[in-house]
């Protein structure tokens, strides 16, 4: 029997898919190609009450992924919003936030920065650090997953959101607070995927209501952007964007070229030196990836 389904968990080559009536099956793909992400809409062939084979993947409205010179790591498909979760403790990385926001911009998805653990005394300093990202136009919400997640409700309504962030920021705590049945679900899916672990080792999709869905993803340590073209990078950085097209050379790489408008903006205090440094690091990584 052939049917439509949604990928609700992905872990390596193992998937869990959900039928329109809510029944979940474990599924594998045919052949070697396994470019599937949690949130993907697929056509499956049901083998029995527990198993299915994924036969085709439907076109995606969005795809969030990271990549290095060797491979792409799909994070989530068909999401409308990315929640970048940070916390005062353990300390978060601005480098990771900057990279993640470029991937989010490249994918055309709405971002929300979420500062969790607002109850900790270190939260004020973390909040002050995040004001930079807020000044670029990215919305920022501060809450405590342990105390109260209701401030998040209006943001989640009628969205398919994916939680991304470094390990330990509190993604699982957030999911457990938002989805009362989440823990049971995780155990059920872990069994289906035969991983035997109950930590966030794979992406999982939860339904908050009929129109609102939430995908949890494993903690990130790095965020490669080998899939973004070098020429597109500055246009994906909102602080650099207003200065583009004003360099002396139309093909300026914003490195040592004379008359570079981005360097002029940095000298005028309009652009942070770290942001140009990030652009240059990403350009170097792309050049390295291209040389393989
Ligand atoms: N004080 C405080 N601690 C929190 C809060 N939310 C989560 N924590 C704690 O932070 C630690 C990490 O939380 P997790 O939910 O496991 O973090 P995670 O982001 O899912 O981590 P990974 O599964 O490794 O990706 C746990 O000890 C939580 O109890 C909060 O709002 N306030
Ligand atoms: Zn330039």
Automatic annotation (TrEMBL):
Keyword Lyase: no
Alphabetical UniProt keywords: Cytoplasm, GTP-binding, Hydrolase, Metal-binding, Nucleotide-binding, Ribosome biogenesis, RNA-binding, rRNA-binding, Zinc
Binding note for cofactor: Binds 1 zinc ion per subunit.
Residues involved in Zn(2+) binding: 247, 252, 254, 260
The name this protein goes by in its record: Small ribosomal subunit biogenesis GTPase RsgA
Family designation: Belongs to the TRAFAC class YlqF/YawG GTPase family. RsgA subfamily.
Enzyme class (EC, first level): hydrolase
UniProt-annotated binding residues for GTP: 116-119, 165-173
Role this protein plays: One of several proteins that assist in the late maturation steps of the functional core of the 30S ribosomal subunit. Helps release RbfA from mature subunits. May play a role in the assembly of ribosomal proteins into the subunit. Circularly permuted GTPase that catalyzes slow GTP hydrolysis, GTPase activity is stimulated by the 30S ribosomal subunit.
Localization per Swiss-Prot or TrEMBL: Cytoplasm
HAMAP family documented for this protein: GTPase_RsgA
Listed EC numbers: 3.6.1.-
Cofactor: Zn(2+)
Domain CP-type G: 66-223
Organism expressing this protein natively: Chitiniphilus purpureus
Primary location recorded for the protein, binned into one broad class: cytoplasm
């Amino acid at each position: 029997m052939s049917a439509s389904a949604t990928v609700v968990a992905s872990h390596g080559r193992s998937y869990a898919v959900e039928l329109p009536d809510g029944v979940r099956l474990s599924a594998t793909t045919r052949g070697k190609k396994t470019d599937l992400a949690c949130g993907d809409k697929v056509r499956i062939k049901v083998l029995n009450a527990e198993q299915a084979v994924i036969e085709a993947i439907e076109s995606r409205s969005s795809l969030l992924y990271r990549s290095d010179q060797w491979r792409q790591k799909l994070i989530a498909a068909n999401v409308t919003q990315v929640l970048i979760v940070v916390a005062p403790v353990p300390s978060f990385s601005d480098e990771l936030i900057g990279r993640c926001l470029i991937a989010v911009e490249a994918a055309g998805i709405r971002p929300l920065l979420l500062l969790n653990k607002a109850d900790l005394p270190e939260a004020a300093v973390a909040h002050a650090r995040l004001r930079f990202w807020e000044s670029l136009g990215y919305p920022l919400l501060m809450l405590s997953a342990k105390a109260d997640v209701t401030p998040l409700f209006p943001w989640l309504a009628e969205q398919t959101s994916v939680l991304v962030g470094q390990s330990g920021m509190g993604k699982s705590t957030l999911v457990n607070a938002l989805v009362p049945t989440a823990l049971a679900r995780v155990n059920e899916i872990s069994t289906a995927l035969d991983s035997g672990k109950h930590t966030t080792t794979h992406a999982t999709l939860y339904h908050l209501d009929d129109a609102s869905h939430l995908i949890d993803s494993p903690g990130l340590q790095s965020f490669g952007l080998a899939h973004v073209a070098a020429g597109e990078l500055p246009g994906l950085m909102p602080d650099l964007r207003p200065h583009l097209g004003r360099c002396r050379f139309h093909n300026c790489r914003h490195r040592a070229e004379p008359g570079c408008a981005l360097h002029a903006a940095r000298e005028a205090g309009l652009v942070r030196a770290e942001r140009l440094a990030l652009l240059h690091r990403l350009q170097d990584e792309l050049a390295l990836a291209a040389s393989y």
